Amino acid sequence: MDGLKTSDFWYDLPEELIAQTPAEPRDSSRLLVYDGGRDEVTHAHFRDLPDFLRAGDLLVINNTKVIPARIFAHMDGRETVFEILLLRRKDYTRWECIMRPARKAKKGSVLKVSDELTAEVEEVGDYGVRTVKFAFDGVFEDILDRVGNMPLPPYIHEKLADKTRYNTVYSKTDGSAAAPTAGLHFTPELMDRVREKGAEFVEVLLHIGLGTFRPVKAENVAEHEMHSEYFELTPAAADKINAAKREGRRVIAVGTTAVRVLESTAAEDGSVRAQTGETSIFIYPPYKFRCVDALITNFHLPESTLIMLVSALIGREKTLELYNLAVKERYRFFSFGDSCFFVPAGKTGAREEKCALKVVHTCKQSGARTGRLYTEHGVIDTPCFMPVGTKATVKGLDPETVKETGAKIVLSNTYHLYLRPGHELVEKAGGLHKFMNWDGAILTDSGGFQVFSLSSLRKVTDEGMEFNSFIDGSRHFLSPEKSMEVQRALGSDIVMAFDELTAPDISHERAREAMERTLLWLDRCASQKLKSHQTLFPIVQGNMYADLRRESALRSIPYATCGIAIGGLSVGEPAETMYAMLDALAPVLPWDMPRYLMGVGTADYIVEGVARGVDMFDCVLPTPHSKERHGDGQGGVPHHPQPPLRRGFHARRSRMRLLRLPQLHPRVHPSPS
User: Fold this and answer.
1) Strands 129-136 and 117-124, how do they pair?
2) Is 11 exposed, middle or buried (0-12, 13-18, 19+ CB in 10 A)?
3) Residue 395: pLDDT band with limits 50, 70, 90
């Protein structure tokens, strides 16, 4: 890429595609989304932005506010009208400006703006830049509000009816000569929806001046000199950005000005340092981004420093290809035009994930954390316990009462629903959510545990598991492909991979054999197509051998897009052994994914699991024990009369009974970081 010429960043743009007025409402503008990992383009609208984000994303916005920086003046006795564009305040009366016609604005020239404001040229610079001293009585900002105009770019010829439309809804700090246009598309309501998705905003400041919009005159890109611009990155903002980088969450710059702040303050490891000052950073290919993971931006002028910055992120050829596609699709360009969301290759796109975890708090004394798990059927606070509805019903409670316990996700069983009533019937009913009248999230296990529990009634090979039905003794075969077929038909949110469970007293050799078979089956499960809202959880096996557990985790992680499960524990081994296996896994499991400890449900096991970083638990134990008044000492949940069944799937109500477990404090220890 050495020796790039300015002309290498040219593209043809019909003049009618240059937007003259802002979109109404703001978020009705179009959005071109490029997922570099998939080399995939999606055409959407800016109001759809939350669909392309993931929980934990950090959007960095520039809170600069555009001032009415364009003023007009004349010299006594002359007809020439001078345009003065305020760029940067040097002190109380002196400003750096651009003046036109520049050749007539000589040192010592005195110009009259109005009866209350005059300007004297003190210094002359290149490209029409002048230092001007203003004389006035009163408050300069108040006078500027009366005589100044919003500094719209020269390619916008229509008068702006509402000057607030050339500022973002989050603008705060006066001082900019142009708008950070990528942010013009946000509305307060859209920002709330982004937050509901689990993403966050953090503010930085860069006052836009000559550095951003000065044209590139040099033939060779590397010879262009950027004009410096003032920026601020507060300690609080730096802490938020560094936390996101440390936790593996995406840092998304809203606009090229946010990029310049982040990359000006970033170290090689991606961390940023709080500072205030001037930046003249010029980003063009090839450039290794240290902090920025993705970019929301408008379409930029040909041969500008801004299109060069975009090219550094996703490649020059790809940038020009996408710009030409936008021309073909009749997108609107420049300041009041449409927008783009560029996710370069190697950065996870949100549409790859059907659910995502946002870690909210972590504990300094242990691995405990609280979080929010986002799914198509609601947000789940973690750590959480999943009531078990083996056959699409948690006995004794209707769905509304289950919700009253705080449960937002339930577990159902592939094996039982496959045998009776049959996954085809459930799919015909509209899927498991409608079949059981539950609008929250659902996790289905793969059936491996139930087949394991059949003991002598089963036969296991690399192809799958052959077993006799406990209902009528009929022979069945469950394979990874069949398990995925059944779970796809059920329509659960979280689908468990098919795995081989083993007893706790087997040899290392036998444990490795089962682990290898589980990994073989995982690969076959991952090759099967699921429904658009479903995600696959791999299951870590390895019996009671720490080395196999770690190996299983590391080989399973590449298949994990949202979460990962820990299976084969709480099957008769001592509690200390289970805790040792969790301790061995904690350092290698992904931080930004939920960790599900399967089949564990006693209060002490849950507390110990949470302390080791586990987020999700389930166990059938509460159902049979609720009659015996186990749990919190208050007799459990009272039995509710079973509602009558009605004709039709969608009127059917589930009948469930649930043990009320002790309420877990959101922090196991009192000192979150």
Assistant:
1) antiparallel
2) middle
3) confident
Q: Quickly list DSSP for 426-479.
A: HHHTT-HHHHTT--SEEEEE-SHHHHHTTGGGEEEETTEEEEE-TTT--EEEE-
Q: Is 445 a catalytic residue?
A: yes
Q: What's the rounded Cα separation, in Å, for the pair 559 and 441?
A: 21
Inter-CA distances, 60 with 229, 237, 258, 448, 476, Å: 18, 9, 6, 45, 55
- Is pLDDT of 652 > 50? no
Strand partners, 254: 296
CA–CA separation, 167 and 64 (whole Å) = 9
Token digits of residue 264: 């000006």
> DSSP label at 591?
T
- Cα–Cα distance between 31 and 41 in angstroms, integer? 10
Between CA 642 and CA 216 the distance in angstroms is 76
Which of 332-341, 370-379, 439-448 reaches the highest mean pLDDT? 332-341
338 is catalytic: no
The residues, ordered by sequence, that sit 6+ positions from 6 with a Cβ below 8 Å of its Cβ are: 216, 218, 219, 220, 221, 224, 303
C-alpha torsion sign, points 256, 261, 262, 266: positive
pLDDT of residue 305: 96
Q: What are the CA-CA distances from residue 126 to residues 21, 96, 99, 191, 613 (Å)?
A: 32, 12, 11, 41, 60
pLDDT band at residue 457, thresholds of 50, 70 and 90? low
3-state SS class at 487: helix
Contact (Cβ atoms closer than 8 angstroms) between residue 208 and residue 175: no
Q: What Rg value do the Cα atoms of the chain yield, rounded?
A: 31
Q: Pick the closest to residue 62 from 222, 188, 208 (CA basis).
A: 208
**Residue 453 pLDDT level (bands cut at 50, 70, 90):** low
Query: Is the confidence at residue 145, as pLDDT, over 60?
Result: yes
Single out the catalytic residue among 35, 499, 592, 618: 618
Q: At 365, which amino acid appears?
A: Q
Question: Measured between alpha carbons, how far is residue 343 from residues 187, 202, 294, 340, 531 in Å?
Answer: 22, 19, 5, 10, 24
519-527 average pLDDT score: 94
Q: Of 89, 92, 96, 132, which is closest to residue 112 (Cα–Cα)?
A: 132
334 against 376, higher pLDDT: 334
Please report the pLDDT score of residue 55 as a whole number: 73
Rounded-to-integer distance, Cα 58 and Cα 31, Å: 19
The stretch 181-194 carries a mean pLDDT of 96
Report the alpha-carbon distance of residue 435 to residue 393 in Å, rounded. Answer: 10
At 547, give phi and psi (nearest 5°).
-65, -40
- Among the listed residues 293, 398, 445, 592, the single catalytic one is 445
Question: What's 78's DSSP letter?
Answer: -
312 and 338 Cβ atoms separated by less than 8 Å: no
Query: Cα(108)–Cα(122) distance, rounded to whole angstroms?
Result: 6
pLDDT single digits (tens) 568-626: 998 889 999 999 999 999 988 888 899 999 999 889 999 999 999 999 999 877 655 54
Torsion of CA 553, 557, 559, 564, to 10 degrees: 70
Contact 130, 111 (CB under 8 A): no
